[in-house]
Amino acid sequence: MTKEEIGKSIDPNYPFVYAPTTEPTKLFFNDGTFKVGYFQFVAVSSELEKQNKYTFIEFNNAINYRDTGDEKYITTVNGNDLINVEYPAKDNVSFQSDENKIEDSDESKVPIKVPFDPNLIRIRRDPFTLGELIDKIQHNEVNFFTLFQRKDNLWDNVKQSRLIESVLLRLPLPAFYFDEIETINEITQERMTSWQVIDGLQRCSVLRNFAVNKTMLLEDLEFLKQFDGKTYDNLPRDLQRRITQSPITVYVVEKGTPDEVKFNIFKRINTGGLVLTPQEIRHALNQGLPAKFVEELSEVPEFREATCYVINSDRMEDRDFVTRFVSFYIKGPVEYEPDLDSFMTKGMASIKDTTPEYRSEMKNNFTKAMKTAIAIFGNDAFRKRQNYGDRRKPINKALFESLGVGFSKLSLADTNKLIMKSHLFKDKFIELNKDSKFIYSLSSGTGQKESVKTRFEEISRIINETINS
To answer: How far apart are CA 175 and CA 415, in angstroms?
Structure first.
């Protein structure tokens, strides 16, 4: 493969390998072997480039290279031996050592000190039948492109058929949960009310396939085998009626319910299938400007470098980190009231109330904070350390918040002073990590008000002491 062919496999917009790849890349060679790792640069010399050779860090060498910068871990790949480049690699590769993970912390067992008003919980239980739900699906009043679920239509035909069989056998179905939303018709400008699926997307997909689109054939039924191969229209009229008249339990979160209330509702009922992470729920609640801005910050190269490229984006872990920064940057630790999830939900929502100038400044300060972390700590940023000789620890979210916001608020002059005195700052940081109250604030009680106060105040203290020393 040529330089251009390799580059297009990585990014079709750039016909060359121009910088380090941030995701694992799989190379397939004409002898049947493959390598997984990262392209570093086009080549270490123009002579190698002429020979169609490129620098590559194999996956099992990546940690050693990032720790040491030793070029002995960089291998050379001959483009003439390549037959394909898969980017990002589909293999489930990951850094296995603890130092390339995110430290677990206890954030959930913190009581809410500012609970929402119970009167704001507006959930109604509608007496409903499958026929009424099928009617809403037929008239596009159920949103299948919901942000609270993965994808619709994931069940295979046998599993879909067994659901219909359960209905025909008069077995009760689990409850359906919907979020009532209001949209504007772009053509008529009329207000339209529809339901966004919170829980029950796959079951709604089965109803659409079988009773609305009528494309589904029943298959491999356990008790009603005489109906294998039948469509909805082929069923006897009494069985069609049994489907449409089957009672179901439907819960609807009414429109106008505040976001922080919705967040807690979704978190409590989000128990089946692939459970959504808190950040995925926040993302669903804060579509538009907040979601786009958080995504934009999560793609800042300095953020990925400062966290050693180990924060996974699949379940929005990277956006969770960014939302932590944004929430404490906008509201500040002084405004913090438990619990952390609610604070972050409000923090993300508050992005929509900021000006473009403020967001631009926040992004610049976020980038500056990540650069500062890299300059001071290298590949040890946002990790606990009690001695210089200790093994590198996992990334700690609480340190990311406090160090990130602390660095972001510095002037350029103070940033430069801090970097110049980085050894002194690291000495103070190591000493601080020996304080039991500070360590507790990073690990065991990260969502408690006192813990938030402790870590932000102590990080601010050693930053100021270093700058003013």
So the answer is: 55
The CA-CA-CA angle for residues 109, 114, 116, to 5°, reads: 100
d(CA 17, CA 26): 14
The closest alpha carbon to 125, from 159, 55, 175, belongs to 175
Q: Which H or E run contains 404?
A: helix 397-408
What does the block give as tokens for 50? 């002429």
Written as one string, the DSSP assignment of 318-375 is HHHHHHHHHHHHHHTGGG--S-HHHHHHHHHHGGGGS-HHHHHHHHHHHHHHHHHHHH
Which of the 8 DSSP states describes residue 229? T
Centre a 10 Å sphere on the Cβ of residue 123 and count the other Cβ atoms it contains.
15
**27 token code pair:** 């190379």
Q: Which of 250, 285, 292, 254 is nearest to 267 (CA)?
A: 285
- Name all domains of the chain by residue range, CATH numbers in brackets: 3-93 (2.30.30.100), 122-256 (no CATH), 278-468 (no CATH)
Amino acid at 334: V
Residue 112: phi, psi to the nearest 5?
A: -80, 115
**Residue 59, CB-side half-sphere exposure with 13 Å CA sphere:** 20
Cβ atoms of 294 and 347 closer than 8 Å: no
pTM: 0.56
Going through 165-319 in order, the beta strands assigned E by DSSP cover 176-184, 191-199, 247-253
Q: What is the pLDDT along the chain (469 residues), one digit of tens a residue?
A: 888 888 888 777 665 555 566 677 888 888 777 788 887 765 556 777 788 888 888 876 776 666 666 777 788 888 899 988 888 776 545 444 556 567 766 565 555 554 556 666 788 887 899 999 999 999 989 887 655 545 567 788 999 999 999 999 988 888 898 888 887 766 777 888 888 887 788 899 999 999 999 999 999 998 899 999 999 999 999 999 999 999 999 989 888 787 767 766 776 666 555 556 777 777 766 778 998 999 999 999 999 999 988 887 767 889 999 999 999 999 999 999 888 888 998 899 999 999 999 999 999 999 999 999 999 999 899 999 999 988 889 999 999 999 999 999 999 999 999 999 999 999 999 999 999 999 999 987 788 999 999 999 999 999 999 999 8
The phi and psi torsions of 448 (rounded to 5 degrees) equal: -75, 145
CA distance 292 to 244: 41
